[in-house]
Amino acid sequence: MTYIRKTICPYDCPATCGLLAETDGKRILKVFADPEHPVTKGLICRKMQHYEQSINSPDRILTPMRRIGDKGEGKFEAITWEEAGKEIADRFKKILKEDGPSAILPAYYSGTMGVIQRKCGEAFFNRLGACSLVLKLCASAKGSGYEAVMGKTSCLEPEELKQSSLILVWSSNVKATRIQAMPVLQEARRAGKRVVLIEACSREMAPYCDETILIRPGTDGALALAMMEVIAEQGLQDETFLREQCLGYEEFLPIVKQSTPEWAEGITGIPAEVIRRLALEFGQAETPAIFLGSGFSRYGNGGMTARLITILSAFTGAWKKPGGGLCGSEHNGGPFVDSRRVARPDFRKTPGRMVNINCLGSALTDTKKDIIKAFFVFGGNPVNSVCNQAEMIRGLLREDLFTVVHERFLTDTALYADILLPAVFSVEQTDCFKAYGYRTFSVGRKLVDPQGECKSNWDMFCFLAQAMGFEEEHFKRTEEEMLEDLLSHPEQGLLELTEDEWRKLRDNGTIRQPFGDHSHFKTPSGKLMIVNKELEDPVPCYREPYGGEYPLRLISVPDSHTLNSIFLERPDLVAKRGPAALMLHPLDAAERGISEGDPVTAWNDLAQVEFTASVTWQVARGTAAVSGVYSSAITGTKLLFNALNHERISDMGATTLNDNRVDVKRRTE
Ligand SMILES: Nc1nc2c(c(=O)[nH]1)N[C@H]1C(S)=C(S)[C@@H](COP(=O)(O)OP(=O)(O)OC[C@H]3O[C@@H](n4cnc5c(=O)[nH]c(N)nc54)[C@H](O)[C@@H]3O)O[C@H]1N2
Ligand SMILES: Nc1nc2c(c(=O)[nH]1)N[C@H]1C(S)=C(S)[C@@H](COP(=O)(O)OP(=O)(O)OC[C@H]3O[C@@H](n4cnc5c(=O)[nH]c(N)nc54)[C@H](O)[C@@H]3O)O[C@H]1N2
Ligand code: SF4
Ligand SMILES: [Mo]
């Protein structure tokens, strides 16, 4: 007999969709969208429509394993959890004694986004006193830039855009990354409202927009400033709002006045008359909204650009009316539960060494000053997802480095493991989820037992804590007990639930808060901060990205078939996506004698990486774009896109994944 249970998508995606899983109690047979989920409403992405194929994949790692071949060779033998636990504990104890806790480096990111399973490793590593990982791989410069202007004010949720009169889709591949917002854009167009795309690579979104404006990567701040210049010149700004409800308008105005469309044309590559027309349209719109992705923020100037775009969203006073403003991702809903109850910062006795995740390559190869002797990866795939890949591999090949990887599949990172531990899928574990694109909170309890010997992150760290001899009660609880602990210490977003809502939530349900209040700014002064005195650069202005000496700007575009390196386990999705294509503008391709489908090599001072050329007008001139993340098993090459990316950190501490330059040549094979 089979039955259907609710569950939650665990992946790094703004929606945390509601799913329905058909099961016989042992296996997951089929997965579909939950029509009752307040955000999903029956619509999920193509990746998760056959989640059961991932869960039941024959390629899953099902037992602990020990390396028997050379590092990176991917040869392992099965061992028991007891053997694995003893080996890890013995090695960790030796390192603690000989090198100290800062020689142990954990690495994790967004494999699973639940509060319990994502954060539980922190308790273990806090207890060890190991390095702390600075988690700035994704879009934190965008969040920090927004917050530098708006404080804790919620941004718009996608559904609020139904009331917008003009929508600028700015640096967001909505179709790939925020599919639930697509109907809103389509509805707006049907109602005769304009949807304009501002992109460096418009391949996927152009068909869904009325107009596409291609911009030179990393220069969006100049466009935002020039739009404000035109708006101010025409007197379309909301002068009363800017003077009374914002800080620093007068100080900022001279910067705006010098930022003409002609100046911005030289920087952005967008003709001055297009900038002028777009600015007028935005300035005259009743309730203009910016739907903001993150691609533009992964540059040296990312935080500053986010500030400038956020200020533009307020320049005409749009936030005062429903539908006006900016829809980004961190909406400041909740908090619902206190994640410190899982991460246990109180277990750390002395401050640990901080390692930025963008600098893993140099951390692993530094054998002089701050040597790392153990590297523990869980819920992440840094060899595929983090910059400076060749350097990271050099580090992982060190014979004196002990690498443990807790994974579901033999990823490029797992290949370098000394001990490989089997991880579960979301339906085999219990967790709770706060969405980052909506104000929702969900519970997803275990539906079936883990396959093989797989353990959840929680169970694995509790097991290792026992092997280490840790006495804390925290490590003796089950994940169900941890969930109960979180729910019985509710934070603001859960304080006013009715009994019926609690019952639904506990039974793998989702609760949703109303839209945020955008009319009162949650900043220390209650005013919006055009000038922010807390920052190194208090008055916003245009800053150049890092760039480099090579002619083409290299960017990464999210792909509809994959989510970072997740779903590479699915032959159906991988086949539909095709080979690792490097998209080039026809003029850039012609200058290099490159045609569609040619084998090409992109190179810079860090590495050479092979791709297949895809020649398209839908990429900005001077830009080379790659869609999503691949694995070496698919490309047949050891080095991938991220080998071309430097470890440089942005102005607000985050990744500069899109801020690298390369040249490209045709390869003769
Ligand atoms: N299908 C799918 N869904 C995903 C993901 C995925 O890989 N695949 N990833 C998930 C994760 S972890 C995240 S963080 C989010 C990301 O979701 P988004 O924020 O929507 O995507 P980004 O990767 O940040 O980039 C969006 C767009 O920025 C463009 N871009 C790059 N540089 C510039 C620039 O300088 N200016 C402008 N205007 N555009 C630029 C790229 O061409 C790309 O189309 O999506 C999540 N959802
Ligand atoms: N070239 C390029 N690089 C990128 C990006 C890009 O678009 N292009 N995107 C960037 C962004 S936005 C992000 S957020 C990062 C993501 O960086 P990562 O989080 O390192 O990358 P993922 O590919 O999501 O890898 C997650 C891994 O966790 C595993 N996993 C899933 N669930 C669990 C679990 O419960 N337990 C354990 N132990 N493992 C689990 C999955 O099998 C997968 O291998 O990558 C960044 N890097
Ligand atoms: S990956 Fe995103 S869109 Fe797809 S089901 Fe999960 S949360 Fe929904
Ligand atoms: Mo991300």
- Helix proportion range: 25-40%
The molecules bound to the chains, other than polymers, are: ligand MGD, iron/sulfur cluster, molybdenum atom
Question: What distance lies between the first and last C-alpha atoms, to the nearest angstrom?
Answer: 56 Å
How are the strands of the largest sheet arranged?
5-4-17-16-15-6
CATH topology of the largest domain: Rossmann fold
Number of domains: 3
Q: Write down the Rg.
A: 25 Å
CATH architecture label name of the largest domain: 3-Layer(aba) Sandwich
Inertia-based shape: globular
User: Treating each run of at least 4 consecutive H or I residues as one helix, how many helices?
Assistant: 22
CATH class of the largest domain: Alpha Beta
Strand percentage, roughly? 15-25%
Describe the structure.
The chain is an alpha/beta fold and about 675 residues long. It folds into three domains: about 65-130 and about 335-430 and about 450-495, 3-Layer(aba) Sandwich (Rossmann fold); about 155-330 and about 525-530, Dimethylsulfoxide Reductase, domain 2 (3-Layer(aba) Sandwich), CATH 3.40.228; about 550-665, Beta Barrel (Barwin-like endoglucanases). Helix content is about 30%, strand content about 20%. It contains 22 helices and 27 strands. The strands form seven sheets. The chain has a six-stranded mixed β-sheet, with helices on one face. A six-stranded mixed barrel has the order 22-26-23-25-24-27. Strands 10-9-8-12-13 form a five-stranded parallel β-sheet. The mean pLDDT is about 95. The protein binds ligand MGD (2 copies), iron/sulfur cluster and molybdenum atom. One ligand MGD binds near residues 137, 382 and 385.
